[in-house]
Amino acid sequence: MNANQNKFIGVHLCLSAARNGFSITIVFSTRIGIHTFIAGSLEKAALRAAELGANTFQIFSASPRMWRARAPDPEQIRLFRKARERFDLRPLAIHVNYLINLASVDETVRAKSILAFRGELERAALIGAEYLVLHPGNCKGQSVEEGITAFALGLKEAAAGFEAGNRKKPLTVLLENTAGSGCSLGSRLEELQSIRELARDLTDLAVGFCLDTCHLLAAGFDVATQAGLETTIRSIEESIGFTQVRLIHANDSKTPLGSRVDRHAHIGAGHIGLAGFRRILTHPKLRRKAFILETPIDQPGDDRKNLDTLKSLATLPLTKASRVMKP
Ligand SMILES: [Zn+2]
Ligand SMILES: [Zn+2]
């Protein structure tokens, strides 16, 4: 694995053809990656992503199941940034801690969530991440509208006085769609849009969206079929639009359409399937987005396998590609 090889995958190849033996293929998606783990060292997470053949990645900046987190060591940050530059790993997304619920009615959970999210913002800016991915929380005990307001006010409180860092490339908070189990907010795209609008009024934060394919299917968007994907694309266009969709979490789903249960499956082994992912990765509205896997590692090597599968699905033989690319 060397830096140039990795760069090749990342080149904007949308319309350029690459000779591959006797056949010509077109690579649509420019940025394909995976969630890796810091396991004691930030740098290791970047090196692991490069070693697997990713050119974008996601991490947790601290333990995802603990409230407390330490600020990362400056020397570690330096090595991490160097590794990202060397292997052209961008964008970097940080997924926030699982405990954070900015929409909670419980005062203790809410206060802890605001404090923890402030820590997430600060670490993400220090580390140099482009995106900080956050679920809109759980509104148990209140209406959806009250939950959305509570969430946006929580964002405001957490972000008070926060400098997003380098103004040319500020940190963007991405609201992720959810599967919609229980009282979780964000399974309807209109909810995500309302949160973004409120957040823009209440804070200086840059706010965009992350769409998770498994969560979409579980929430009732039939991204597995050609007709269903087209209907989903229209729904996205009419609600949140595509400009602010910065990241796609590419996960197959163990549970069927509309199950409202969030269980990630290996690419091709779930209810979306290989053909479904090929259509998603090569769709004109989606193919320039960054795709990041959050698939399970049941066996050693599952991470590499899922990444290789995703990369191969983003590539079409020229004849097939020219059909797909017609408007
Ligand atoms: Zn996700
Ligand atoms: Zn999920």
Task: Summarize this structure briefly.
This protein has helices spanning 3-10, 42-52, 74-86, 107-127, 144-159, 189-202, 213-218, 226-239, 273-282, 302-313, 318-325, and strands at 17-20, 23-27, 31-35, 57-59, 92-95, 131-134, 172-176, 206-212, 245-250, 252-253, 264-265, 290-293, 315-317. The chain has 327 residues and is an alpha/beta fold. The two termini are 37 Å apart.
Question: What's the structural blueprint in terms of helices and strands?
Answer:
Blueprint lengths: L2 H8 L6 E4 L2 E5 L3 E5 L6 H11 L4 E3 L14 H13 L5 E4 L11 H21 L3 E4 L9 H16 L12 E5 L12 H14 L3 E7 H6 L7 H14 L5 E6 L1 E2 L10 E2 L7 H10 L7 E4 L8 H12 L1 E3 H8 L2
